[in-house]
Every structure is written in structure tokens, then in C-alpha cells.
Amino acid sequence: MATGSMMKDYMRRQLRYWVDDFKDDILPRDFLSKSYSKTQLLIPEIDLKPHRVAAVLHLPSPLLVTAVHCVELTIAVPSWSDSDKEAAHRPVLIHMNELVVQVRNIWECTSKIRRTAEERVQAALLEPDPLGSSAAMFEFARDVNDRTKLVVDNLRVQIFVGGVSRVEMILADLHARTTDALWQDVKDPTTCVDYSPDQLVQTRFKAMSFMLSVGINPPGSDGAQMIHLMTKELFLIADRAAGNVIIHRHGARELQISLHELAVRFRGSAST
Description:
Layout: H1 6-18, E1 40-47, H2 50-57, E2 63-76, E3 92-96, E4 99-105, H3 111-126, H4 135-145, E5 148-161, E6 164-177, H5 179-182, E7 193-195, E8 201-203, E9 205-216, E10 227-239, E11 244-249, E12 252-258, H6 259-271
Parallel strand pairs: 3-5, 4-5
Antiparallel strand pairs: 1-2, 2-3, 2-4, 5-6, 6-9, 7-8, 9-10, 10-11, 11-12
């Protein structure tokens, strides 16, 4: 890159990986120049690659993610400069104000949609690693991942049946926090840390909080308004070392479950 900035290179690679039909013109015109120093990127109206999002959601067959639209994406970094050593300890923010995910039964989709979905999956298998082959970039990416905050004002998952949205799940005020941000939430660090060989302390938790709402549009209804089923505030902590997910509510531990058991339960409930 013209700037020699690893952060710019990293963000550009990530956007190319996630954004459908990515082109450099969605970035500011002078983004690649050394003079560009604004630490906040605002990218409106983008579509994400459905198969990338599907890989994160782990939806059971025959559900297929057919479209993912982000109304506005904001990326805020502490600095683009590699020489800014203080920036290496401050969080990176990924903020989406509205993210809509459309899901359909693959057998209700047209042959063209099914073929396109299969071609995307096959093409992804042949794609080179988005980070390239540089060891320095892999090390840089790991560091950025450990201090990234993901915020989504509204994540709306719509499940279509017969061309009509029948189930809608809304995750409002979703916050996914990693190492740096989590220190604010943990009162006793000694209960949630690993000691690495060089005696540096690292948290082993990943945390996520959101307000979950679920609604249905049953067959026979006019479809004008969803029937509200539930609203629940959730706070999840994934303990990588112990392989557990801890569910908190109102600041108190409510349930602890193994990652394996959680996966089995979700697969079981999805198939019933």
C-alpha cells in the first residue's frame, strides 16, 4: 500500500472478505494516501456476503442465508499510524446501526439462487487467506481481534416461508466485547485470567450482551404486524479455557453450560 499502514491494509482486507462486490470506491477517495488521518470510516448501504454470515450463524439445513444488508457501517480506529505505540492498546470499534439478515428454506428458493449459493461456497474454498501469507500481518490481526468491540444497534434476522417473513428475531443493542473492554465488566480479574509464559495477564473471556425479541407471523394472518412472543435481556460470557458459556441476567449468574452442550441444544431445538 502507498501508506505502509498495517491498519489500513488490515481493514481493507477485512472489508474485501466480508462485503459483497467490494470495490475500493466505497472507501474515501484519499484513504490510501499518507495524508488520510481521519480515524473514523463511515460506509453506508452495503451488502455482506451471505455465506460469510451463514458461517457465523451456524444455521441448520435446509436454512439458507440469502441476503444481508447493513444500512450504515462505522469503523473507528485509535490511529492508522504504525508508529503510534499507544494506539496498540486502545480498542477498535465496528459499529452497525441496522443489520438485516434474510433466511429462507433452500428448497423454496429458485434454482438460480441455489446455484449462486453453491458457487459462493465453492469459490470460498479456493480463496486465499484474506490476511495473505505475511507472519507480521497474522500477528497484527490477532492483536486487533483481541481489542475489537462490535456494536449493532439492531440485528434483525428474518426467516421467510413461502415468500413471507414468518419469524423475526431482533437483537437490539448488541455489544460483543473482547479483552480490553471486558476489564470494565469483571470485578475480580483473578477469577478470569490466564497467565502466559511471559507472565503477561490475558483474559480468557469473550462477552456479548443484547436484548432479544422474537415475533411470529402465523399462516392465515394478514402479515401486517408480528405477534410478539418474548423479550429477554441476555449477557453471555464464553470462557475459552473452561469451554463454558455463562449466562447472566440482572447482574447475576443464571446458567452455566458447556460450549459442546450449548451447540447440541441449539441443533436439537432447531430441528424440532
